[in-house]
Design brief:
Length: about 525
């Protein structure tokens, strides 16, 4: 590629979701000309694509918002404890308008290739419409869960009905009234969409491979008092959230201080009941060690298993719906009436372990034991998480090395934001950073601020390139693994470790050390003159 006809910028950002938008705002504030290239037709990323019925955030809306602008938080009012997709998308659109971001975003354009040209120390980027862009810096704000995955079920190409993926939902919605529908997959997306489709459809078949733990969201409208209280204390709470492991607010009186094993059984049952009734993911924070001590975890796991049996009328169905892994080690789901949906006469649960799908015909899903006639199939089968969106582009660093080659044994990053051999490339909330294990908006803000400070540092001192040193990267990858191995997370197969994708190297990808600790570490790296990076 030559850069004769290329457009030149100071920075190229890929993706106009929550990360790309704040990155653009920050780059402008620090006097840089940036362009954002976005595959969708509008802003929003995840919240642009995931429009399936029941789509909601599993982080409380008062926590799930940017903190960088006090004016922004004052003028936006969330309506519910857990915001619906359309409300979050409206918020993101408001941010885009308020900060006049759209004029530097090109929509409906997908980055296909990016190459670091060593002679000029610049990134050359190609898109699917044939346009070319050149800039010294490239920032991937491509999201962790943005590359949907659909299993290659035999016969799917013969199916004559409608096929949907929750992560690519039609903008004008889908009416399932009087239709026979299959949902494949019972992760967060499946668990949200299933009760909504069941309420509409004539018949619903749910194809489940692994049952999941889901906690009642207990969603409700926010009161004026709750909204005002957060508004008043916004800066203080944001500061304490950023220093906490999860980035989520909990009043000090509610912060766990004990092991589950340090309290008598009766008290433990009462504690779990209390947090179960409060709703959301609070149950997982009842004690300090639920994700590090198998015996402690077992107490919460058994509590949740009993709850499923209480909610599901038929014992054989309840058995199939009951997970047998450590609760919380796969992403915990939140629901509104998920388990109860299986008490409905129009809903059938098919466990594909005992009754595998053998083929799909023009109008049915055929398993070993039955034929399920359907008019529509909804795949809620998840994503090639964290690495997928990056590897979907042909990214080449020094010496033409591809990212796919560099990551053939799994993602290798320094701090989850930089990759040895790929100078001047930053990843926002990438593998090796807290990202999906913490409040992702705070993770994004921390990365964006850090990157912007780093670019200022380089400009002030006349550096042209920054690159993670292989040694620092190796040490970070080892640290990320070590911290993960000290928890129960790696004991369960999940998209956190890539085990949902055939052939993907199994490595626990996010950093489980907590947002606060990670933020302090990154600040220390910067303070020490970007220790572990080579600047030239
Ligand atoms: O995807 P998933 P998701 N045959 O990978 C099954 C976030 N999110 O879109 O577990 C049959 O979790 C697969 O089975 P198994 C959140 O972080 C948040 O639901 O691999 N089944 C699993 O049941 C979440 O964790 C929100 O055995 C097959 C399901 O498909 C992440 O996104 C809402 C199959 C995929 O579950 C991903 O959630 C939605 C096959 N061949 C998403 N292949 C909220 O904020 C896969 N499966 C609430």
């Amino acid at each position: 590629m030559t850069d004769n006809d290329a457009m030149r910028h100071d920075v190229i950002v890929i993706g106009a979701g929550l990360a790309g938008l704040y990155m653009l705002h920050k780059l402008r504030q620090t006097g840089r000309r940036a362009i954002v290239i976005e595959a969708g037709s509008d802003v929003g990323g995840t919240w642009y694509w995931n429009r399936y019925p029941g789509a909601r955030c599993d982080v409380e809306s008062l926590d799930y918002q940017y903190t960088f602008s006090d004016a922004l938080q004052r003028e936006w009012t969330w309506s519910e404890r857990f915001a619906r997709q359309d409300e979050i998308l409206a918020y993101i659109n408001h941010v885009a308008d308020r900060f006049d971001l759209r004029r530097d975003i090109v929509f409906d354009t997908r980055v296909t290739r990016a190459r670091f040209v060593e002679a000029t120390a610049e990134w050359e980027v190609e898109t699917d419409d044939g346009s070319r862009h050149v800039a010294p810096f490239l920032i991937a704000a491509t999201g962790a869960l943005s590359l949907p995955q659909t299993p290659p079920l035999p016969g799917i190409e013969d199916f004559k009905g409608d096929v949907y993926h929750t992560g690519r939902w039609p903008h004008d919605g889908v009416d399932f009234t009087a239709r026979r529908v299959a949902v494949v997959g019972t992760g967060s997306s499946g668990i949200q969409v299933i009760p909504n489709i069941a309420a509409q459809a004539e018949r619903l078949y749910v194809f489940q491979r692994t049952p999941n733990f889901s906690l009642p969201a207990r969603n409700a409208p926010l009161t004026e008092q709750q909204v005002e209280e957060r508004r008043r204390n916004f800066a203080d709470i944001a500061r304490s959230n950023k220093a906490s492991p999860s980035g989520l607010y909990r009043p000090p009186s509610d912060v766990a201080t004990q092991s589950a094993l340090d309290v008598p059984e009766e008290r433990r049952a009462a504690d779990y009941e209390k947090w179960w009734n409060r709703g959301g993911t609070l149950l997982m924070r009842t004690y300090t060690d639920l994700l590090i001590n198998a015996d402690s975890n077992r107490t919460a796991t058994e509590f949740a298993q009993r709850k499923i049996r209480d909610m599901v009328e038929r014992p054989d169905v309840a058995d199939k719906l009951t997970p047998h892994y450590h609760i919380g080690t796969k992403r915990i789901c939140l629901d509104s009436g998920y388990y109860e949906t299986f008490n409905r006469p129009n809903v059938t649960l098919v466990d594909v372990n005992e009754d595998p799908i053998s083929t799909i015909t023009g109008d049915a899903i055929v398993t070993a034991g039955r034929t399920c006639p359907v008019d529509a199939i909804v795949f809620a089968t998840g994503y090639d998480a964290m690495t997928g969106p990056l590897l979907a582009m042909d990214i080449r660093g020094r010496g033409g090395q591809t990212m796919r080659e560099a990551w053939s044994d799994g993602p290798q990053t320094y701090l989850g934001l930089s990759i040895a051999g790929f100078p001047n490339l930053f990843v926002v909330a990438g593998p090796g950073s807290p990202s999906v294990l913490a409040n992702v908006i705070l993770s994004i803000e921390q990365h964006v601020d850090w990157i912007a400070d780093c670019l200022d540092h380089m400009r002030d001192r006349g550096f042209e390139t920054i690159e993670a040193s292989p040694d620092a990267q190796d040490a970070w990858v080892e640290h990320v693994n070590e911290v993960a191995q000290a928890t129960l997370y790696p004991r369960t197969k999940s998209w956190y470790s890539g085990s949902n994708i055939a052939g993907k190297p199994e490595i626990f990808m996010p950093y489980v050390g907590g947002l606060g600790r990670y933020t302090a570490y990154c600040a220390g790296v910067a303070r020490d003159g970007y220790a572990g990076f080579v600047l030239s």
